[in-house]
Design brief:
This protein is mainly alpha-helical and 295 residues long. Helix content is 77%, strand content 3%. It has twelve helices and four strands. The strands form two sheets. Strands 1-2 form a two-stranded antiparallel ribbon. The protein has a two-stranded antiparallel ribbon with strand order 3-4. α1 runs parallel beside α6, α2 crosses α9 and α7 crosses α9. The two termini are 37 Å apart. The model has no long low-confidence stretch (mean pLDDT 93).
């Protein structure tokens, strides 16, 4: 794997790490299986791309994308809490609806960002080389999001989210409305996913309705790899592990795609196969370690 490929993998790991933090919030903290992310990531990309092409500041477009993703997550949680639709089914329904909504927002299947300023242009204007701009921008946003989520979960409202996922009956006995907490938590999760999608769109120079396919798989793979490699003894460490797991996952993908075994080599179409193998290895490694220690 070349240095350029490794740099690109780290960039992708950081920007999708924001999405992984959102996935960790629903799957691990709230214990809410949420497939909405496959639709909220391209939703954020669509909102940001359309906003920028309409003359809106690229940084403000990120806030609009965050708000759009938050609303999408709230809709999923609302269907689950108010209408008692199973969380998986509620998220699938929202994800399906978002496909049409994203096309409606973009007035087509995609939007190109040609000849418009993005968040990377302001960094390049500061004198940072263009090939390092993505690393700087994604790194800054990843640190900001990571710091925010760790701080937020230490607040009273954040503790309510933790308690809702851990012991909902106990927190309800203290007078907390768990339905409101779930709506807030799932909304925040999808807001972060949409923010990640907006940054990806500005980096790629286009937003596409199909760019969210496989998002949840990559997110769960990153979470599992992060927990296995870095551990999750504390809340802060768990989220740091999720972010670093995203980087490790992208590096492993780039390494696998660059490997050759004689005449055989992996193609981009083998991405799902590589992901499945990585997740399997990450899942069985702790059990193998325990057996070796017992022996």
């Amino acid at each position: 794997m070349t240095l350029y490929a490794a740099l690109g993998a780290v960039e992708q790991g950081l920007v999708y790490g924001i999405m992984v933090i959102g996935v960790y919030l629903t799957f691990r903290i709230l214990d809410f299986p949420d497939l909405t992310v496959d639709g909220s990531l391209p939703l954020g990309a669509a909102i940001s791309a359309v906003a920028i092409t309409s003359g809106i500041n690229p940084y403000f477009s990120l806030l609009l994308a965050l708000a759009g993703g938050f609303c999408a997550g709230m809709m999923t949680a609302f269907l689950n809490t108010k209408f008692k639709i199973l969380h998986l089914l509620a998220s699938i329904l929202t994800m399906i609806a978002l496909y049409s909504i994203n096309i409606r927002i973009m007035s087509g299947p995609n939007v190109a960002l040609l000849g418009v300023d993005t968040v990377f242009d302001s960094v390049i204007h500061l004198g940072i080389p263009a090939h390092y701009a993505g690393l700087v921008v994604f790194g800054c946003f990843a640190v900001i999001v990571l710091s925010f989520i760790i701080w937020f979960l230490s607040t009273e409202l954040g503790q309510a989210i933790l308690a809702t996922g851990d012991n909902p009956q106990m927190i309800r006995s203290l007078g907390v409305n768990t339905n409101t907490i779930i709506i807030l938590g799932v909304g925040l999760s999808n807001g972060l996913v949409a923010l990640s999608g907006a940054l990806v769109a500005q980096n790629q120079g286009a937003a596409d309705v199909g760019m969210g396919i496989g998002t949840i798989v990559a997110g769960l793979a990153s979470v599992i790899i992060g927990e296995t490699v870095f551990g999750c003894n504390t809340m802060a460490r768990a989220f740091i592990a999720a972010l670093l797991g995203s980087v490790v996952y992208r590096l492993a993908i780039a390494l696998a795609l660059g490997m050759e075994f004689g005449d055989f080599r992996f193609n981009p179409s083998d991405l799902n196969l590589i992901t499945a193998v990585l997740v399997i290895v990450a899942l069985i490694t702790p059990n193998l370690k325990k057996r070796l220690i017992q022996r």
